[in-house]
Amino acid sequence: MQKISEAIILAGGLGTRLRSAVADLPKCMAPVDGIPFITFVIAYLQQQGITKFIFSLGYKSEVVTAYLQQQYRGLEQSYVIEEEPLGTGGAIKLACESTTTPHVLVVNGDTLFDVDITTFADFHFKHTANCSIALKHMQDFSRYGSIEIEQNGLIKAFNEKQYCRVGYINGGIYILEVKQMLENNLPAKFSFETGFLERHTGTLQLFGFTQDAYFIDIGIPEDYQTLINYWKDYKQKINPKQKQGWNMFASFINNIKEYLP
To answer: Best exposed site among 7, 159, 204, 208 by fewest CB in 10 Å?
Structure first.
């Protein structure tokens, strides 16, 4: 059985939309009760069996590396630092040059999605996919574009951002065949979402893996504050059942808490 043991964490974004709530920090370092957000991402990946970490950094990379070197001295880690913004695709391509396995997990440093990586990997290898995307089922959304899939998970189309009553969104977790990034004559700067996924829909084997699990993207202040509120309730052992998603959050934290500092 093939496994995924290596991950790229994309943590180089400017965090412009979050700037009003988190001044002058990379998004991945946004504090949750004093804990940098990336700590939760790392704990999740460790709990899922990831043992090697490649951090793709850009804006204020020194803040991130200083924290990682101090807090995670025993972690097998390396850094790929953009000298200028390369877009998500360029960042992934550059990080893929540091991989040691033919398939790598890619996650966003500002997103949590409680995907079962073992099951996700089984799905990816079963379909001999070039890239598999973890998809989150959502209702009444307009912040994200939606993704259409066949019954077997093959991706049919990516739709632009617009109001959608029900559908699947890109959860920001991928299993990627490394050679597709290194041997596909891709430019140094490009968007992974449009320049790779959308461009190659129908030509590469792109599959969507659906999961109804805890998901949060702290890219905007409102969602960042939701996470802070959930964490405070959890620490105080308050169970606000009326809050949608809280029980999923509590289950997620229970699973990863042994990996938190």
So the answer is: 159
Number of structural domains the chain divides into? 1
36 C-beta neighbours (distance < 10 Å), count: 22
Angle at 79 between CA 124 and CA 15, to 5 degrees: 85
CA distance readout (Å), 73 to 29, 76, 78, 95: 18, 8, 12, 21
Q: What domain range includes position 26? A: 6-134+172-259
Distance between CA atoms of 109 and 14, rounded to whole angstroms? 12
C-alpha–C-alpha distance, residues 93 and 71, integer Å: 27
Q: How far apart are CA 210 and CA 171, in angstroms?
A: 9
Q: Quick: pLDDT tens for 53-109.
A: 999 999 899 999 999 999 999 999 999 999 888 999 999 999 999 999 999 999 999
Q: What is the mean pLDDT of the chain?
A: 92
- DSSP code for 204: B
Residue 88, in any domain of the structure: yes
pLDDT surpasses 80 at 162: yes
pLDDT at 20 over 70: no
Indicate if the alpha-carbon torsion angle 19, 23, 25, 28 is positive or negative: negative
In the chain, how many H helices and how many E strands?
A: 7, 13
CB atoms within 10 A of CB 119: 11
CATH of the domain at 221: 3.90.550.10
pLDDT exceeds 70 at position 113? yes
